Amino acid sequence: MHTWIKIDQNSDFSIYNLPFGIFSESDNVKRVGVAIGDTVLDVYAAYELGIFKDLKFDIRVLESDYLNDFIALGKSTTVKVRTYIQSELCNTNSVLKSHPSVFIKQNEVQMHLPVKVGDYTDFYSSIEHATNIGTMFRDPDNALLPNWKHLPVGYHGRASSIIVSGENVHRPKGQVVLGPNTEPIFQPSARVDFELEMGFIVGKSTKLGESVSTDAADNYIFGKVLFNDWSARDIQKWEYVPLGPFLAKSFASSMSPWVVTLEALEPFKIDGPQQEPAVLPYLDFKGPKNYDIHLEVAIQPKNCIETVVSQSNFKYMYWNMNQQLAHHTVNGCNLNVGDLMASGTISGKNPNSYGSMLELSWAGSKPVELNEGGARKFIQDNDTVIMRGHCQKGAIRVGFGTVKSTLLKAN
Hints:
alpha+beta
C-alpha cells in the first residue's frame, strides 16, 4: 500500500497499522483517534466529512471518554471503519487530503486511557518466566507447579489502578519480612519491579453461563496493548501465600494509549511452542495463534540517557490468547467489552530477554549495569521505565508506540 501521508519508514504507525485511541486537544473534549505517522486522525471529524456514509452508526460513539462504545459496535463495523480510513489515506483524491485540519500532531494532543476497564485478569503464560521464578524460589528440578502445563494460570487483578502511559507511579508501601524468623514490618517497598507484558482488549460481551471456544476467540478480541504490570517483590513474597498477589500488584499497572487491532497483526501470526503434555480438548486449537512482536524495556534514571535492559518477543508465550480466553470462560464467566486480559511477564530463553528485574538481576544477586546512573537490582526513585513493541515483515511495520512511567518516592 502507498499513502499520500508522509511517514518515516521506522514509524510504528504505518498505513498497515492504524491503531485506535482516545485523545484530546486544548478544549479537553475526548475523541476517538487513529495514529498515522506522527499525527492523529480525528475520526469524529472524518465522519463529518462523510467517509463513513455507507456505514450506519451513531457519531456520538466517536466523541467519548473511552473506546468501549465504539468497540461495542462489533467487528462488522469497526473493521470497516479501519479499512475505509486505510483506503482514504491511499486515495490521492481523498476528502481527507483536502481537509488537513483533521490531522493533529501527536505531540500536540493529550492521550488518555483507551478503554474503561471493568475487569482485569493477569495470566502467567511464559514458561521461561515461570521456570525462572520456580528455580529461584522453589525447586530447580521441579520449577513448574503441577498445574502449569495443563491450564493458563491467572488471577483477577485490580482495574481501578490501571493508568495510561505518561502517568507516574508512587513507590508502594506495605508489610515486608526482612529475614527468616523475623516479624513483618511496614515500610516502602525496596524491590519495585516492572513486568514486561502485553494485554488484549475484549471486544464482544457474553452472557453469564456462556463459554468461548478457541476457534471463536479471535472474534472476541478487539486488539492489543503494551502493558507494564508494576510489582513490589518484597511485599509480594510475604503476602502471596495462600491467595496470590494483592497489594504487591494493585498499586499501578501502565498501559500504552494505542490499541493495535487484531487485523493489523494478522501478517505476523506464527506457531507457538510445542505444548506437552497434550492439552484438554477445550484448550486445543488450530493454526498459528502466537504473534512475532519484538519487545524491549529500557530504564532511564533522572537526567540520564536510557539503557535497554531487556529484548524479548511475544512469540515465546506458551499459552496463547485463544487458550486464555477459552479457559477464562469455560466455567461460564461472562465477558464485557473493554475487559483487559494481560499476558503475564514475557521472558525468553536468554538472560537479556528476561521480562523483569527480578529475573535480570536474579533476585538482586547480579546487578544490571546502566549506561548512566550506576547499576540496578530493582527500580529506584525517579527511574523511568520505557517499553516498546513492534512487528516487522519486509516493508510492513506495525508498532505499539511506548508505555512509560516514572517511579516517584513513596507518599
